[in-house]
Design goal:
about 5% strand, mainly alpha, about 150 residues, single chain
Length: about 150
C-alpha cells in the first residue's frame, strides 16, 4: 500500500502540541467534574513558538499537490515522515515493528494550522477548500506573496 501512495505517513494521533494541550485540558476538566471541584480556569502551557498567524504561498507554476505541501510543511514535514515510513517498510519484516515504535515515540511534536490566515497569489478553490478543512482560513483579496 505504501508503494502505491504518493505520500504515506504513519498515523501519529496526538502528536501536535495543540492536540496534546487540548487533551490535557479535557482530562483536567473531566477530573475536576468527577471530583466535584471547581476548575481553576485555563491551564497555562508553554507550547514553544506559536504557529505563524499568516501564510502566503506562491501558486504560479505549481500543481495543487505542490501548493498543499508548501502550505502544510511549516506545520508538519509530511515529506520527511513519508521518507521515514518508506525506510521502515523496506526493512525485513521482523524489524519493522520495533523501528515503527521507535519512529512513533521519537516523532517531533508540531503545531496545528488552525486559524492561520492563508493567502494564495492565484485562486485555487480546491486547494483553499482542502486547507480550510485543516483549519487554515483562506483570506480574501490580494496580498504580496513570496515563494515558499
Amino acid at each position: 500500500m505504501v508503494a502505491a501512495a504518493a505520500l504515506a505517513t504513519p498515523h501519529l494521533a496526538g502528536h501536535s502540541l495543540d492536540g496534546k494541550a487540548a487533551a490535557v485540558r479535557r482530562i483536567y476538566e473531566a477530573t475536576c467534574a468527577a471530583c466535584g471541584l471547581a476548575s481553576a480556569g485555563a491551564l497555562a502551557a508553554d507550547l514553544g513558538p506559536p504557529a505563524p498567524s499568516r501564510l502566503a504561498i506562491a501558486t504560479a507554476g505549481r500543481s495543487d499537490e505542490e501548493v498543499l505541501l508548501a502550505a502544510l510543511t511549516p506545520f508538519y514535514d509530511v515529506a520527511a515522515d513519508d521518507a521515514a515510513l518508506r525506510r521502515i517498510v523496506a526493512l525485513p519484516p521482523g524489524e519493522r515493528g520495533r523501528e515503527f515504535e521507535r519512529h512513533r515515540t521519537a516523532a517531533t511534536a508540531h503545531r496545528e494550522p488552525r486559524g492561520v490566515e492563508l493567502h494564495l497569489d492565484l485562486p485555487r478553490p480546491r486547494v483553499a477548500a482542502a486547507l480550510a478543512t485543516l483549519g487554515l482560513r483562506p483570506a480574501t483579496g490580494t496580498a504580496a506573496v513570496q515563494r515558499e
